[in-house]
Write the structure tokens for this entry.
Amino acid sequence: MSPRRTALREAHGCVLAANVRATVAVPGFDNSAMDGYAARAAEVAAASEANPVTLPVSGEIMAGPVRPEPLVAGTVARIMTGAPLPVGADTIVQLEWTDGGTETVRINRAPRRGLHIRRAGEDIAPGNLVLAAGTVLGAAQIGLLAAVNVARPAVHPRPRVAVLSTGNELVEAGTPLGPGQIVDSNSHAIAAAAHEAGAVVRRVAGVSDDPEAFAEVFEELLKNTDVIVTTGGISVGDRDVVKQVLSKSSDVRFERIAMQPGKPQGFGVVDGVPVFTLPGNPVSALVSFELFVRPALRRMRGLPPRVTPLATQVPWQDGSAGLDPSSGAVTVVVGETLLSQSGKRTFPRVRLERDAAGELVATSAGG
Ligand code: AMP
Ligand code: MG
């Protein structure tokens, strides 16, 4: 997706499109890291429990939009955490090292020069690289952008994904089922998967198998969507509405893929919108999402491709020790014979359990 400047709130979870360099210093001014007294180190250097130093308190400096008076020689100023340091002060005597006095203060310990002073720019100096392009903006990154006074970072916007389920048999979850009806689980599962993949999701549930009804909904979605994902209606049945409508009116291609589950698939770009037509079987639909839709959404979000098991050489072919866990893939021990149909890449659903040695062992979870 082409970069766009957005408010921080919308930028959360997006990928930064350009390096952000600081134009300001953080902190922006010298300030106190403690509640206490701004002082000159030389004037309190002799202070100890046995021989405290007592000095007049010449003022009070709060955190806030003020420029404090310079510190009068021979005095200290009460100062709060985050308040600007007065000119002349070069140390902070923390409250706990004093009697807390307001007219005069007795100081029991000598702070070294610079103690508890946060210097302007000590965290970030103007010109520093704050965040690199390609960074996913989590809570800490959003805070950092705000801290360097960037209110509208350039990010790859989240793709808007419409999830459309088809089938006359479908009813919305929570509805009592009549004869021949099933709950529409696909639209929820695929919408959730797209949400997890960083999309802004619109769920359009249970569109009927009537070609005109489907075409109308589909046309409408094309206008304000970046990706359309449909489920169902793409096999060889008479009433396979998605295939029937889109194979006539668009460049969506319907193919059989040598994989299991998820043999029937369709894909094409219609009016600039990528359209994925996933099978209706819920397991097929979700596996297909992982293999085809999620990588596309990563790309649209400005993320590099993730090495999926599909794209990776199997370890015994390329000699590598195994798959990289940071890629989302893990290496497991196969705990029982898992067969694939000849000529098909099989994606078996498995249970993972740790054995006594701590190794992950996969056993079939069935269909
Ligand atoms: P289809 O490809 O439309 O013939 O659907 C294949 C199988 O998946 C049928 O058993 C459907 O009832 C089932 N199915 C289709 N769509 C959904 C859905 N949205 N939720 C749950 N099951 C579905
Ligand atoms: Mg159907």
Observations:
- The pocket of magnesium ion (ligand 2) is lined by residues 166-167, 232-233, 280 (CB under 6 Å).
- The chain has a mean pLDDT of 93.
- The chain has four domains: 4-27+123-156, 31-118, 160-300, 310-367.
